[in-house]
Design a protein that fits this description.
Number of domains of chain B: 2
Shape of chain A: elongated
Order of helices and strands of chain B: HHHHHHH
Strand content of chain B: under 5%
Oligomer: heterodimer
Chain lengths: 150, 174
């Protein structure tokens, strides 16, 4: 193979980059160990730390979905708690029905959920506490839907 | 060479930690932490390792480490560029190792001359410089051209590196 000769500047730059030998798997391990000892690192101890770290990092990575799911759960819980805390405890039956109607009109998904509930039991057949429970559920559903979009 | 995945990771750490120290001018703990960060990113990206291909892992992690180091330098530089009391800007320090890369033709000529002077009694190191001046940087090819073992070439390159460092220090001295 013919190669083009280098200028001194190019040669010096190539010489100054010779640390990349360490990335060559063909570099003998004895020389790698010399490099490590030269910077004050015990090769055996580093190898042990490396394996410990990789085992832990793989485990963390395997379980990372759980941490993410836990964060999502906490976020949704706080959204629900926040939405429920905004509702007055002493709402009258008329106020609850008005609010349910607002929610039904404002959001198609919640509207469907309210209609499904009404199929099982019509509002006029429901007690105040059943209507209140439905409103709490719908407000929570709305908060979750909004939170999921944000 | 690495035969199991554990061997491969040991190989990766043993080479990448000193490489990071030298290439990016980091302390030992910082370099090890940086290698760990690169491994985490590698695993997070769902990449797998092939124990028969250590080079692929070293290259992938080396490139990841370069990215991490560049980002850290950039962040540090941004933090360092702050407004002083009189409204002027304070500049960041140059990145470690970069001063060595900026060199003019005359300085390079003098550096190479000093280097050849230093290695003249070391046949293999001298032959490596000659091979590199012809564009041959690959240790196995250098060994073939010089007529010695690859291990001897690596040892010669180690000695050469120490000479390069000494020449740099001599040229920087007042």
């Amino acid at each position: 193979m013919s190669r083009k000769g280098r200028t001194d500047k190019e040669l010096w730059t190539a010489l100054a980059c010779s640390d990349d030998d360490l990335l060559d798997p063909d570099m003998p391990e004895s020389l790698v160990n010399q490099e490590l000892l030269g910077v004050g690192i015990d090769p055996q101890a580093l190898a042990e730390r490396a394996i410990q770290f990789v085992v832990q990092a793989k485990e963390d990575e395997r379980l990372s979905w759980q941490a993410e799911a836990q964060r999502t759960r906490e976020r949704l819980k706080s959204l629900v708690a926040e939405s429920n805390s905004r509702l007055r405890h002493d709402m009258t039956r008329a106020e609850i029905l008005t609010r349910l109607d607002e929610l039904r009109r404002a959001d198609e998904n919640i509207g469907s959920a309210i209609r499904m509930a009404a199929r099982k039991r019509k509002p006029e057949e429901s007690s105040d506490s059943e209507l209140r429970a439905l409103l709490d559920e719908m407000e929570a559903l709305r908060a979750i839907e909004r939170g999921g979009r944000s | 060479m690495a035969t199991t995945e554990d061997d491969l990771w040991k190989t990766a750490f043993s080479r990448l930690v000193p490489w990071t120290i030298k290439r990016h001018g980091m302390s030992c703990p910082d370099a090890e932490e940086t290698v760990q960060e690169a491994v985490r990113l590698f695993l997070k990206a769902g990449k797998t390792v092939d124990p028969a291909n250590a080079k692929a892992l070293l290259d992938a992690l080396g490139s990841q480490i370069n990215g991490i180091a560049v980002n850290r330098r950039r962040n540090k530089a941004m933090q360092a560029v702050q407004l002083t009391a009189d409204g002027s800007l304070t500049a960041a320090d140059p990145a470690p190792g970069q001063e060595q890369q900026v060199i003019d033709d005359q300085l390079a000529k003098r550096a190479v001359s000093l280097l050849l002077d230093r290695v003249r009694s070391d046949d293999i190191a001298t032959a490596i410089v000659i091979e590199m001046s012809g564009g041959n940087d690959v240790p196995a090819e250098q060994a073939r051209a010089i007529g010695c073992s690859v291990a001897d070439v690596y040892k010669g390159r180690q000695r050469l590196k120490a000479h390069v460092k000494a020449v740099c220090e001599k040229m920087e001295a007042p």
